[in-house]
Design brief:
The chain is an alpha/beta fold. It contains 15 helices and 7 strands. Strand 6 and strand 7 form a beta hairpin. The radius of gyration is 23 Å and the shape is globular. 37% of the residues are buried.
Length: 367
């Protein structure tokens, strides 16, 4: 008898994870999705506003997860003390581990879980994939909805005969003939694994998904306990413009911190905005985003400054105190203007120019 499988979707407060929640609710209402938000206690007010608005749209509560929930301190401050005042950085991302990943893993427990992660079809990156065998990740916005460990488990050279039989069983005659040529070519230094996967996806996304789903029925992955999985029929690929459209068509307010604000430096005008969800002092912020925080949320910038002590700074080799010196602000804005102009032929939108919010990278992760 199949075991119960939970469907979990993390909300980061950013555009992609919010759009995914809307998308799943609209297109797959039959899935009993549980929504959650890992609260660090250091989010922008706009994030909480979005969470509240999204709850109304979904008609469901978004479960609030907080690390160190028995502590009287905010989660971030609690762990900062444990780490002796050592601020997180790209080399030591203890905030992601303790404030995002561990609360999610605790929430999932030992249940069988399918976790839905908002990686767009126009992004070249992988989202968070749990190492726990009871948690499986799905990427609904991509052409390839499966995570890399699933693909390795299915399309390894050792499984060529089995995959071939599944294509014969579920593909049309035309697709089968072409697919078998690809399948029976072993991956090697001359035929990369990624090329094989992409070639099969180009033939038919639905057939590819059906084959993977049928293969996994005899596995230990959570999806083996589901009789029907509607996402294997989906061929939509969601990119940035689609995300904006999802917000607009469903009447949900696009996160306000993405709104471009004009600034002027040496007679030239540019625009800046925040480009990611997460803590207001996120160390992944670009210098221009720190200036945005200083000029748009001076109280939060001041709070971020107070964390810098004993030689620990948010930016390598430069403190927030130095960043806001008048001459340094001018230089940062000039650098940002040059960067914007250099790539303006690709996109004239700031949120497309800069890095996206990545949901658990905080990670860009999953939330």
């Amino acid at each position: 008898m199949s075991k119960k499988v939970r469907h979990l979707l993390g909300i980061s407060g950013g555009k992609d994870s919010t759009a995914l929640a809307i998308y799943m609710r609209n297109n797959y209402p039959e899935l009993d999705i549980e929504y959650y938000f890992c609260d660090t206690g250091k989010e922008l007010d706009e994030t909480y506003t979005l969470i509240n608005e999204l709850e109304v749209f979904l008609g469901k509560k978004i479960k609030l997860l907080r690390a160190a929930d028995k502590s009287n301190e905010e989660p971030f401050d609690h762990f900062l003390k444990i780490y002796g005042g050592y601020l997180p950085s790209s080399q030591a991302r203890w905030c992601t581990k303790n404030l995002k990943l561990e609360p999610f893993v605790k929430f999932a427990g030992n249940d069988l879980v399918i976790s839905y992660v908002a990686i767009r079809g126009d992004e070249d990156r992988e989202g968070y994939v749990s190492t726990k065998s009871n948690i499986q990740t799905i990427f609904p916005f991509r052409k390839n909805i499966w995570s890399i460990e699933i693909l390795n488990a299915v399309f390894g050279n050792v499984n060529i005969p089995k995959v071939a039989e599944l294509y014969k069983a579920f593909a049309s005659e035309t697709i089968t003939k072409k697919a078998l040529e690809i399948i029976f070519t072993p991956t090697s230094g001359n035929f990369f694994f990624s090329k094989k996967i992409n070639a099969l996806l180009e033939l038919s996304i639905k057939t590819f998904n059906k084959v993977v789903f049928e293969f996994l029925k005899n596995s230990n992955y959570p999806i083996a306990n589901i009789t029907n999985f509607p996402l294997i029929e989906n061929e939509e690929i969601i990119v940035m413009e689609d995300v904006k459209k999802i917000f607009k068509e469903n009447g949900v307010t696009f996160p306000r911190y993405y709104n471009e604000i004009e600034y002027e430096v040496d007679g030239q005008k540019g625009k800046y905005a925040r480009t990611r969800s997460g803590c207001y002092f996120c160390f992944f912020q670009q210098k221009i985003e720190w200036i945005w925080l200083f000029e748009q949320h001076p109280n939060l910038f001041e709070k971020a400054m107070k964390y810098e002590k004993d030689g620990f700074t948010w930016n390598e080799n430069e403190s927030l105190k130095d960043i806001i010196k008048p001459e340094r602000i001018i230089q940062i804005k000039k650098d940002h203007l040059r960067k914007s102009k250099r790539i303006s032929t690709k996109s004239n939108k700031l949120v497309d120019i800069l890095n996206d919010d990545t949901g658990i990278s905080c990670v860009n992760c999953f939330i």
